[in-house]
Design goal:
The protein has 418 residues and is an all-alpha fold. Helix content is 85%, strand content 0%.
């Protein structure tokens, strides 16, 4: 058992290091993009960009998330990647339909903002196309290609955006257009992945299990993204685009830091836990490994949090040097956003028991609990207490999701009984 534990920790640290290296370029590019974009278009336009980008991501998650998850789940059932391309192509066409419907309906309602339909559709399809190609590479166990296209995407997003902002107006729409090209250009060489001969009985039959498996996960992903979207929407509604832009800039800056230091561990632990569970369905061993991975995340978090608490003023001063137009009121929310961001990272590990049980609908129920809390706090407490209420909502909603997903897990209850 001791040897197995050492082997597990070695594999976890090795894979985490590998994923950390793969996240360095996208992570740093993400940090740089927040600073550059905020400075180039200002807090008000950045706030508008942020809410439209999150909204478009939400649409893409609902429309294509089921397909991405199914590619990872069912790729091994096909003898080659070429044979899975026809159902994938059909899935992309199916996913495009709700994108267009969502955009037309929300545009008629002028929700979440008055914005060009074609820009939102273009960005949603670019994100969807990019994530499908990335999922194909992941399913074929080609991490080098995943690293390559994600690195290209993060760099091209900055280059294309700055180019378009310089050539046209410095507005949120121009930035959305630049970001869209950043997603699209890296995967254009792989456009031959998609087939035009997709509307066959065989492909329709093949796509059914894709949708049945992936639909709940797509809903879960969409709802999880809607939490950040709703935070920004309510802040803009009550306090205006400028304050919302500052909130978005600070929270995205912190999230980019997590993507470098904590998210690689999340990426590493997922396949290790899933593969070990598939080979040996040992509840005790699974939860011991889950506990160790969670404790490593918590230790990393504390190592980062303590200096932030002690030198809070200094850290905020450094951020304002990089983002001069950041509103001074953001200082009071820096710590709660940091804690809330970590708890959502931790949640991605602690809901693994529901994943091994394949109870994706329960995951949707748990995320719905968090969504309800988000709505209640933002509607009733945001106007009264200010944006600090939204910051603490992130902590509360993440805590509720973690607790509900653990308590509703059958395997967790069986582990406790033993």
């Amino acid at each position: 058992m001791l040897k197995n534990n050492k082997s597990y920790l070695y594999q976890l640290f090795r894979d985490t290091l590998y994923y950390s290296i793969s996240k360095i370029i996208p992570g740093l590019a993400g940090l740089i993009s927040v600073v550059l974009f905020f400075r180039l278009i200002g807090p008000e336009e950045y706030g508008k960009y942020s809410i439209i980008f999150l909204f478009t991501n939400l649409i893409a998650a609902f429309s294509f998330g089921w397909l991405n998850q199914s590619i990872l789940r069912y790729r091994s059932k096909y003898s080659s990647s070429m044979k899975i391309l026809n159902p994938i192509s059909l899935g992309f066409i199916i996913g495009t339909i709700p994108v267009i419907i969502f955009v037309i309906i929300t545009s008629a309602l002028e929700f979440p903002a008055i914005f060009s339909n074609k820009y939102i559709i273009f960005l949603a399809l670019s994100i969807g196309f990019f994530n499908i190609v990335k999922s194909i590479f992941q399913s074929d166990e080609l991490p080098n290609k995943v690293i390559l296209i994600t690195s290209y995407q993060s760099i091209l997003m900055i280059i294309c955006s700055i180019t378009i902002l310089k050539l046209f107006e410095s507005t949120a729409e121009s930035l959305i257009l630049g970001v869209s090209f950043g997603y699209l250009i890296p995967i254009l060489p792989y456009s031959n992945f998609f087939s035009i001969k997709v509307f066959t009985k065989k492909n329709i039959k093949r796509i059914n299990p894709f949708f049945n498996y992936g639909a709940p996960l797509s809903i879960w992903l969409g709802i999880s993204l809607s939490l950040n979207f709703l935070d920004r929407y309510f802040i803009e509604y009550y306090y205006g685009s400028s304050i919302m832009g500052s909130y978005a800039g600070l929270s995205e800056f912190i999230i980019r830091i997590f993507s470098i230091f904590i998210f690689p561990l999340t990426l590493a632990v997922h396949p290790i836990l899933m593969n070990k569970w598939n080979r040996n369905k040992n509840i005790h061993e699974f939860f011991i490994k889950l506990f160790k991975a969670s404790m490593i995340q918590i230790i990393i978090f504390l190592i980062m949090l303590i200096p932030l608490l002690v030198f809070n003023d200094n850290f905020f001063y450094l951020i304002t040097i990089m983002i001069p137009e950041l509103d001074a009121s953001m200082k009071e929310i820096m710590i709660p956003i940091f804690i809330g961001g970590f708890l959502w990272q931790l949640a991605l590990v602690l809901h693994k028991p529901l994943e091994i049980e394949e109870r994706t609908l329960i995951m949707v129920v748990c995320i719905m609990f968090s969504l309800v809390i988000n709505l209640i706090v933002n509607i009733f407490f945001l106007p009264k207490f200010g944006i600090i209420a939204t910051a603490y909502t992130m902590i509360l909603s993440a805590s509720i999701y973690i607790l509900s997903s653990i308590l509703l897990s059958t395997s967790f209850r069986n582990f406790i009984r033993r």
